[in-house]
């Protein structure tokens, strides 16, 4: 048990030691993928999960991260596809300015569908091309595959960085 976990209240330690930890983690990643998790940077989620749930759970954590974030991005993709640009910009939960959205639309127009996995691997732009992909009527199957691929690279790199030496918090 890490020092961080040892200092948590007993009920949280029990939750983290149970299978419910994985369910909770899945929903955290869904919110992150849908760009609704404003309280925690996505770059800290996998390392945090490895600290709290345990490094021995690396494969399940990565699987949950990819499935959850992809499900969240797919939900946002569907909203963009059905609702359109004006709808999203009018929603208070959508915290991307029109100027930034114009920039991401331009990236999608210039580079095509391959910016979806590329943006999922970059800090600060993670998932931002989900919305232009929905506007462009990209197929759902293609979006899911590209989104999951980019997310796997991103989350895998974060796990590797943590396991290879980024254990400052542990």
Automatic annotation (TrEMBL):
InterPro entries linked to this entry: DedA_domain, VTT_dom
Signal peptide: none
Ranges for domain VTT: 43-153
Transmembrane annotation, as ranges: 20-40, 60-80, 143-164
Membrane topology: Multi-pass membrane protein
GO CC annotations, alphabetized: plasma membrane
Keywords, sorted A to Z: Cell membrane, Membrane, Transmembrane, Transmembrane helix
Cell compartment(s), UniProt: Cell membrane
Full protein name: VTT domain-containing protein
């Amino acid at each position: 048990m890490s020092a961080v976990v040892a200092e948590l209240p007993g009920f949280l330690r029990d939750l983290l030691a149970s299978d419910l930890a994985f369910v909770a983690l899945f929903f955290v990643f869904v919110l992150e993928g849908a760009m609704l998790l404003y309280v925690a940077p996505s770059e800290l989620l996998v390392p945090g999960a490895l600290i709290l749930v345990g490094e021995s759970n690396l494969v399940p954590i990565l699987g949950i991260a990819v499935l959850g974030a992809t499900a969240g991005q797919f939900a946002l993709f569907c909203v963009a596809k059905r609702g359109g640009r004006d709808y999203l910009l009018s929603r208070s939960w959508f915290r991307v300015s029109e100027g930034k959205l114009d920039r991401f639309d331009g990236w999608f127009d210039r580079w095509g569908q391959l910016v979806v996995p590329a943006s999922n691997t970059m800090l600060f732009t993670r998932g931002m091309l989900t919305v232009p992909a929905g506007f462009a009527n990209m197929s759902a199957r293609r979006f899911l595959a590209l989104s999951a691929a980019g997310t796997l690279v991103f989350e895998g790199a974060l796990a590797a960085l943590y396991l290879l030496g980024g254990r400052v918090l542990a």
